[in-house]
Amino acid sequence: MRRRILPGFGLSLGYALAYLGLVVLLPLAALAWKASAIGPGQLLHLLAAPRTLAALKLSFGGALLAALADGAIGLLVGWVLVRYRFPGRRLLDALVDLPFALPTAVAGIALTALYAPNGWLGRWLEPHGLKIAYAPAGVLVAMVFVGFPFVVRTLQPVLESLESDVEEAATTLGATRAQTFLRVIAPVLLPTLLTGFALALARAVGEYGSVIFIAGNLPMKSEIAPLLIVQQLEEFDYTGAAALGTAMLLVSLLLLLAVTLLQRWSRRWAEVRA
Amino acid sequence: MQASRWALMLAMALGAAAAQAKDLVLLNVSYDPTRELYADVNRSFAAQWQAAHPGDRLTIRQSNGGSGKQARAVVDGLPADVVTLALAYDIDAIADHGLLAADWQKRLPDNSSPYTSTIVFLVRKGNPKGIRDWPDLVKPGVQVITPNPKTSGGARWNFLAAWGWALKQPGGDEAKARAYVETLYKHVPVLDTGARGATNTFAQRGVGDVLIAWENEALQARQELGADRFEIVVPSLSILAEPPVAVVDKVAAQHGTQEVAEAYLKFLYTPQGQEIAARHYYRPRDAAVAAKHAAAFPQVRTFTIDQVFGGWRKAQARFFADGGVFDQFKPGTP
User: Which positions, given as ranges, span the membrane (chain B) (predicted)?
Assistant: First the structure.
């Protein structure tokens, strides 16, 4: 056996596996076990119901859109924070983490107060037909808010390691600005951007606290899937709730798998470029 | 031999003394709007108990949340000695899990509901949309705020009040009642998950023309947010909301708190307890206390859930269960 430089491989691996098992896998197994009590007919009735489909569409569709928006905004903010020096930069940098620290219910109430018809922004937007609070758009706003720091925080270290001399070299070799961005910067950033995207996506899919305040929660229109789960629980239908939860888990897993594959492909693409 | 007998007697004497002076912790699991009510009740009852049992140290803890959520927490193991919830169905659910007797509602007077409330309307100052009674809620252009009956106990009272009114109109029948309530929910732009949330949406966010609410919630909102901003409208007919209370036998037996738990609930029926309830805008059962506070509570004609719907279990299964009547409605779609 090859000698390792530091001792403790067995202990640390054992600890890591036990920890993952207790904290992550055990609750998920309990969920799947609870859900397995549901009959196939009941499952179909639950998952194929138009209301469930509408809720799943809003939760996953909204989360995808929100993660895309977070990707764009996060890239821009990360770039500005890393590349430029300006007064208040550190304060701005600290503010990025705020959505992490804020209890989601507080975030939801604050956003609702802002976008409600009598709110600071709502009173200007509403007359122009832009309804955000108590509409599907509100769900999106809350999801963008909670997912945004993930993209910035994952991108920052990579942006910092990105030396500007590479861009200067590209320019001296006659590349246009667009070419430098697309062929030099983007390939390096893309895998990390995808990681941030995946994190923001996962966060948005599971978000409950802030969304229910701003959504309006109308069935078929602005009702998210986690709220349906809460309603199942409210009827003491633990099995139905677990089944719906497992379904969400599976879709999330597929989405994250797709992002991982995309990431691998983009990394290879970056290596070919390099 | 002799020594061990002495030791035994000493132990018994100590045990008896311990039985007289006890450390008692009582957990009351209640629903959302009762925070202020039970804070007062706990203070008064603790003082009274302490006076009668000088050796005891009584601590009363309070837990508030959505009624259904609280019931679920108790089923899942929240060690409640007493539950004081928004509707009997939630305590039935706890009884179904064997934590208290199925006939719990017969153990205390008045359906185990020491105070009552009813469902009224809260409208903006001057009543700009002219809301006087239930038919006004479905006029074109009127927006109604009420929470989701699937997640809110209060919202279920609202739903049933509307249904009962429509049913009791001249020529009213089940089909007409259903049509009215279905139309009513088309006028609802936001379905909050709880009664407090709906009050906030209406009062703080300025959404909607009328809030359907518990009378105690409406009176309190008016008191706290300004009597100059809101008016209360009492409909021609409403439901008698009876929020029930019960000792959770199994938990109380484990904690050795049966006696104090029962005394706590009985205290709610005493003139002193009734007075506290009235001060917090709950209608007292006691005729003398009710007469004293008559000015605070307008006359309202009411029906009970047993009269019109045959009890909570039937109402729950028919209207609010999965695939029930409410699930067939399309709220917010004009």
Answer: none
Asked whether the beta carbons of residue B205 and residue A240 sit closer than 8 angstroms, the reply is no
- pTM for the predicted model, two decimal places: 0.82
Which residue of B94, B191, B201 to mutate against A (max A Cβ within 10 Å)?
B191
Domain count across chain A: 1
The C-alpha atoms of residue A171 and residue A175 are separated, in whole angstroms, by: 5
Beta B283-284 vs B210-214: how paired, if at all? unpaired
Other CB atoms within a 10 A radius of the CB of residue A270 amount to 15
Nearest residue on chain B to A122, judged by CA atoms? B205
Q: Tokens 């009215």 correspond to what residue?
A: B180
Task: For an interface test with B, give the residue of A217, A227, A233, A239 to mutate (most B CBs within 10 A).
Answer: A217
Lowest mean pLDDT among B41-45, B172-176, B221-225, B305-309: B221-225
ipTM of the complex: 0.74
Name which of A222, A234, A244 to mutate to probe chain B: the one with the most chain B Cβ atoms within 10 A of its Cβ: A234
Q: Select from B112, B54, B55 the least CA-distant residue to B82.
A: B112
Shortest Cα–Cα distance, A2 to chain B (Å): 51
C-alpha to C-alpha distance for A77 and A113, rounded to whole angstroms: 25
Taking the Cβ of residue A105 and every Cβ of chain B, the question of whether any pair is shorter than 8 Å is answered with no
CB pairs under 8 A between A and B: 66
Domains of chain B: 2-113+242-269 (3.40.190.10), 117-241+298-328 (3.40.190.10)
Of residues A267 and B268, more confidence is placed in: B268
DSSP B32: G
Is residue A86 over pLDDT 60? yes
Angstrom distance (rounded) from CA A70 to CA A190: 14
In a domain, A116, yes or no: yes
Q: Which residues pair with B58 in a beta bridge?
A: B24
Token pair 């109380």 in the structure block, residue: B252
Residue A33 belongs to some domain of the structure = no
Evaluate if residue B32 carries a pLDDT over 90: no
- Does residue A4 form part of some domain? no
DSSP B66-85: -HHHHHHHHHTT---SEEE-
Candidate from B151, B205, B333 with C-beta closest to A231: B151
| H/E stretch holding A73 | helix A50-83
Chain B positions contacting chain A at CB under 8 Å are 68-69, 72, 75, 93, 148, 150-151, 188-193, 197, 201, 204-207, 320-322, 327, 330-333
Q: Which chain B positions have a beta carbon within 8 Å of A227's beta carbon?
A: 193
| CATH number of the domain enclosing A177 | 1.10.3720.10
Within 8 A of B188 by CB-CB distance, chain A residues are 218
Structural domain containing residue A99: 39-273
Q: A235 and B150 in contact by Cβ < 8 A?
A: yes
pLDDT digits (tens, 9 = 90+) for B102-159: 999 999 999 999 999 999 999 999 999 999 999 999 999 999 999 999 888 889 999 9
Q: What is the pLDDT of residues B70-118, one digit of tens each?
A: 999 999 999 999 999 999 999 999 999 999 999 999 999 999 999 999 9
Instruction: Check residue B1 and give its pLDDT.
Output: 41
